[in-house]
Inverse folding.
């Protein structure tokens, strides 16, 4: 039986930390509604202690989708932040408090200038306080991938004993590499299962080395039950693991991972475009899954293969992510097969071998001049050719 992976989307919290990506409350609600259509399990709606505007936005998201999606929001391990989260999400049908506190030496010593014991106690006290408000509490061990393993584990053990129901392991600065991160998750998972197997093990990967998707998949392979990601991979610095990439990785390679999500993948493209439109941040054209070229084929060898059988060059169908169909870009590298297909798709007869060859040569001349040949160019080529011949 395929294992279900819980998907938390943090586009509205970590994603919104991207410079220039400020969203107003209406835009946030619109994105939250689309995330509900996408069927994410949990929406991280914001960081309510950061401003009155963020607090209000979290409340509005709860009002609009909080009856059917788990809503969480972020708190530092201090009472005021936890109170803000509680007040902003308490009307959701399944609210979750998310507490974050660092575990790496650099966080403990440089950021807090406190002892390791004192920081661990701060985390325990925060979880105990949050548990007086709500039953579901996630604890994030910030900078986990650069933490001393035994201290990381002691912290996890202590906060689980204090009542944390989810442990989130962040690769906060995108420092981890897949084998190492997978191994970290495997070791934590083994110990956590012995301690309390009802606790959910989660990961949150950043993309500073371009490895966020790979690290997330490696963590899943090694026992993580929950992933945190964002639409279009938005997020602090180089961003977070991209939801669409991880979800499609699991779908296309379900046999390899033995896992699935409940994401409605046909909503992926629409969600990506909505987030891009509202944040004003373009999706790079060659971005996996949702980039403009993700299902576009331009080389003649590929186009010929695809026309024989789509599986020759396609590992997933464009329709699976909500795109209409694959796109053949006609260029000077497109061969006769692709050009003939384009002519026939427009309802024209390609003619006999000699007529077609003459048309193809004209196409090559045009393609050399224009680089890309569109439907209207094909139309012009065919009609002007037949006028010249007639
Ligand atoms: O990157 C990080 O460590 C975070 C935590 C709040 C989970 O965003
Ligand atoms: Zn983050």
């Amino acid at each position: 039986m395929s294992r279900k992976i819980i998907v938390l989307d943090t586009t509205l919290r970590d994603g919104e930390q991207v410079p220039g990506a400020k969203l107003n409350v209406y835009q946030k609600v619109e994105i939250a509604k689309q995330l509900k259509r996408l069927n994410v399990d949990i929406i991280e709606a914001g960081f309510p202690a950061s401003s009155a505007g963020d607090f209000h936005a979290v409340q509005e998201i709860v009002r609009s989708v909080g009856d059917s999606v788990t809503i969480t929001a972020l708190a530092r391990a201090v009472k005021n932040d936890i109170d803000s989260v509680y007040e902003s999400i308490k009307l959701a049908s399944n609210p979750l408090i998310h507490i974050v506190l660092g575990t790496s030496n650099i966080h403990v010593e440089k950021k807090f200038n406190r002892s390791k014991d004192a920081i661990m106690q701060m985390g325990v006290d925060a979880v105990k306080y949050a548990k007086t408000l709500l039953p579901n509490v996630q604890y994030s061990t910030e900078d986990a991938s650069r933490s001393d393993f035994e201290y990381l584990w002691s912290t996890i053990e202590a906060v689980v004993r204090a009542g944390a129901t989810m442990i989130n392991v962040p690769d906060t600065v995108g420092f981890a590499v897949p084998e190492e991160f997978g191994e970290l998750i495997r070791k934590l998972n083994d110990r956590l299962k012995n301690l309390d197997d009802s606790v959910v093990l989660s990961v949150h990967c950043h993309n500073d080395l371009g490895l966020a998707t790979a690290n997330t998949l490696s963590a899943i392979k090694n026992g993580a039950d929950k992933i945190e990601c964002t639409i279009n991979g938005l997020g602090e610095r180089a961003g977070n693991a991209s939801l669409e990439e991880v979800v499609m990785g699991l779908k296309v390679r379900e046999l390899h991972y033995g896992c699935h999500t409940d994401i409605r993948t046909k909503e992926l493209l629409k969600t990506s475009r909505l987030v891009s439109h509202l944040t004003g941040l373009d999706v790079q054209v060659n971005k996996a899954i949702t980039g403009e070229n993700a299902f576009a084929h331009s080389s003649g060898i590929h186009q010929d293969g695809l026309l024989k059988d789509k599986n020759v060059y396609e590992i997933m169908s464009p329709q699976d992510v909500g795109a209409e169909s694959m796109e053949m870009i006609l260029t000077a590298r497109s061969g006769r097969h692709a050009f003939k297909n384009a002519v026939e798709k427009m309802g024209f007869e390609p003619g006999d071998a000699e007529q077609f060859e003459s048309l193809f040569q004209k196409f090559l001349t045009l393609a050399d001049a224009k680089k890309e040949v569109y439907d209207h160019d094909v139309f012009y080529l065919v009609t002007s050719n037949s006028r010249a011949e007639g």
Summary: The chain is about 45% helix and 15% strand. The chain has a mean pLDDT of 94. The two ends are 65 Å apart (CA to CA). The CA atoms of residues 154 and 168 lie 14 Å apart.
